[in-house]
Amino acid sequence: MSDCIFCKIVDKEIPADIVYEDDLVVAFNDIEPQAPTHILVIPKEHIESLNEIHEDHKQLIGHIHLVIKKLAKESNIADKGYRIVSNCGKEGGQTVDHIHYHIIGGRNLTWPPG
Fold it and tell me: N or C: which end of the chain has fewer CB within 10 A?
């Protein structure tokens, strides 16, 4: 999608502090971190939200979770704990219409989130 900021990051049209990349996903540090560790993991394929995933995305979604696990370990937050957030829709707090997962950790997180 030509106006999607995350697609532009995937296409290297917009710079990002990329911490991981493979054939399916890109992960980068959030520009407005909410914790000492705040990484976004996005698929390279443009999928608008969780509402748009289908059976063909099962392998991709599983891969994203394995990447999250790897990044949490590499960021030294796996043992103490971290949060994975994927907002869906306007009322769910989604601000970029490209499915993405926040890895948030490095501090004590409270519940409910807000």
Answer: C
65: domain range? 5-105
- Joined tokens for residue 50: 């969780």
pLDDT tens per residue, range 18-45 = 999 999 999 999 999 999 999 999 999 9
Specify if 114 maps to a domain. Answer: no
Catalytic positions: 100
CA distance 93 to 84: 14
Cis geometry, peptide bond prior to residue 36 (ω within 30 degrees of 0): no
**pTM of the predicted model over 0.90:** yes
| Cα(60)–Cα(66) distance, integer angstroms | 10
93 inside domain: yes
**Structure tokens belonging to residue 112:** 């409910």
